[in-house]
Amino acid sequence: MFTFKSNNQKEDLEMNSFSDLKIPSSKECLYTSCYCEENVWKLCEYVKNNQSSLLSNCYAVFISNRNQSVPLWYQKSGKDENKLAVWDYHVIFIYHSNDDKGTLVYDLDTVLPFPVPLEKYAPLTFQFETYLQPIHHRCFRVIPAELFLKTFASDRSRMKNPDGSWVKEPPPYPCLSTSDSTNNIDDFISMNPTIGVGEVMNLNQFLEKFL
Prior knowledge:
- The protein is an alpha+beta fold.
- The protein contains six helices and eight strands.
- Helix 2 packs across helix 4 (145-151).
- The model is unreliable at 1-14 (pLDDT under 50).
- This is Protein N-terminal glutamine amidohydrolase.
- Keywords: Hydrolase.
- Belongs to the NTAQ1 family.
């Protein structure tokens, strides 16, 4: 486990001041590389434990597609000058204000500020799909934070090699589970709207909902 240090701690603090939601800076958040879904689960848990009245304004958003090949820019693991990374899936936390303060994105894998307004995050991270092949078009499974906490489960088997060794070391806390499941992560990654929880959207629908 390690923490991601912001490029600009002042930006982190200033951006948080625009919101009623108070989440620790990126360097203080619990973070495990390649376990974005659990990093976001922990953010949801933090809000529930510390600002429960705002939990209904928070969402976990899984980003993937039927090919599990989604390009995202300005990612820490990106290799080119624009930090392009192609994930099988990625998960972000968003806070959608009830007033005119807009929507904030909390992405622990971005090199952009933490948090960052969606109106700035989206064009940099998603770019324009008109320039992408259809197999790389992104879909979004939007899940209310409270529902995510109640329903998500993972035994982390996706992160194991055939011999049982870890592809990436897991978080230090026990696997997340529910009374109904010990592993349903594939339902969250799937962009089939007939299974799983939450609402599946394309990029335009996602932006229309939160901008």
